[in-house]
Write a structure and sequence with these properties.
The complex is a heterodimer of chains A (196) and B (169). With 196 residues, chain A is an all-alpha fold. Chain A has one domain. Chain A contains 9 helices and no strands. The longest helix of chain A has 25 residues. Chain A is globular, with a radius of gyration of 19 Å. Chain A starts with 14 loop residues before the first helix and ends in a 6-residue tail after the last helix. The chains are: A mainly alpha (196), B mainly alpha (169). The interface between A and B is large, with 132 and 122 residues.
Chain lengths: 196, 169
């Protein structure tokens, strides 16, 4: 029963090798989907290519439903699966800053690594920018701390926050995703991609 | 040259299975910015160990003889480099180039990429993770933070898209 390493069914020593192998899968799929191209990534914001939306939400619902089914069959103990904590203000403001970085730079950190791997020089600069941005955060940490820890809500799930079952929330997410896919297919036809 | 990409829905299912296997094996999801953070902390440590000791940000990752580079995300991101390279090699997409819209120069594209990277790096630390670590992984475990971060990232990018359109369309 999973997760295997936290329960020492697989020894801790294998953790980094597993991380490396999972990373290979991650990078391979991102590149295959076209996430190594900033033009494809930015396309979702202009309607000419919605690959980001399709891949991102299909991946989300696949992993989300997978976890719920694994838990249902007792294949995984969800109590041992890390739920990232919510600090509301830093999540919102951090997200806003990342969103600006996304539309200005055309990548996010994972996709930039993937693009560096196939030789995109713009991605190398973007990755260097991430390094600088993290350094600036580190240097201004004592100043930012009050915001960083503001409105702490613990390791809360959206389903608990809304007081609905996780299965019902999952159903809502699937319905919303399918609706967005439908809209995306229509919009992509309206905004043809200019080749260059 | 046009190269063929995978069907996005199939790629999404495969990415979801990669994420699910991360949960199944290790109890944690994917990430990216955390690995760059490890590099930043290590670099600061090399340049000025004293500066690290005096900062309660850097010491989170270096205390008790911990090495910031011996982290799960560092190995995962090394894997991303290898996986991306393999895919690019198989698809014939390995090429050293600056990708940009014909309306803008390479130089402008590189400057914008640098600014975007700085913002994304800073935001990923404030938001406790980036698109993969906070938004994608967070939403898969139904974390409130995951949904909030996702909406803030995509909402802001959509809101600013109009002002940056000349760089993309």
């Amino acid at each position: 029963m999973g997760p295997l390493i936290p329960q020492e069914i697989i020894a801790e020593g294998w953790n980094f090798l597993i991380a490396f192998i999972i990373g290979i899968g991650f990078g391979f799929v991102l590149e295959q989907a076209g996430f190594s191209s900033s033009r494809k990534l930015a396309g979702v914001f202009y309607g000419y290519d919605a690959v980001v939306l399709k891949v991102f939400f299909t991946a989300t619902i696949t992993a989300m439903l997978g976890l719920l089914y694994f838990s249902l069959f007792d294949w995984i103990d969800l109590n041992l699966v890390w739920v990232n904590p919510t600090y509301l203000w830093s999540a919102i403001i951090g997200g806003i800053i990342m969103g600006a970085g996304f539309i200005i730079g055309g990548f996010c950190p994972g996709t930039s690594v993937c693009a560096v791997a196939i030789g995109k020089i713009d991605a190398m600069i973007f990755l260097g920018g991430i390094f600088i941005g993290i350094f600036i955060f580190g240097e201004s940490y004592s100043f930012i701390k009050p915001l960083y820890f503001a409105k702490s809500m613990g390791n809360i799930k959206l389903s608990d926050f809304l007081d609905i079952s996780s299965g019902f929330l999952a159903l809502l997410v699937v319905i919303i995703a399918l609706f967005m896919f439908y809209i995306a297919e229509i919009i992509e036809k309206k905004f043809p991609r200019k080749e260059y | 040259m046009k190269t063929k990409y995978m069907n996005p829905y199939l790629a999404g299912v495969l990415l979801g299975l990669v994420l699910l296997s991360a949960f199944y094996f290790t109890g944690r999801g994917l990430g990216a910015s955390g690995a760059v953070k490890s590099v930043v902390v290590s670099a600061v440590e090399v340049v000025s160990p004293e500066h690290v000791t005096n900062s309660d940000y850097y010491t989170k990752y270096t205390g008790d003889g911990k090495s910031p580079m011996k982290s799960w995300l560092v190995f995962e991101v090394l894997g991303v480099l290898v996986g991306g390279f393999l895919s690019g090699a198989l698809a014939g997409r390995l090429k050293l180039k600056v990708e940009h819209h014909p309306n803008i120069t390479s130089k402008k594209r590189l400057i914008l990429a640098g600014i975007g990277g700085i913002l994304f790096g800073f935001g990923s630390q404030l938001g406790r993770g980036c698109t993969s670590g906070s938004a994608l992984t967070g939403m898969a475990v139904l974390s409130l933070a995951g949904f909030v971060t996702m909406m803030a990232i995509f909402g802001t990018a959509f809101a600013l898209a109009y002002f940056l359109r000349k760089n993309w369309i």
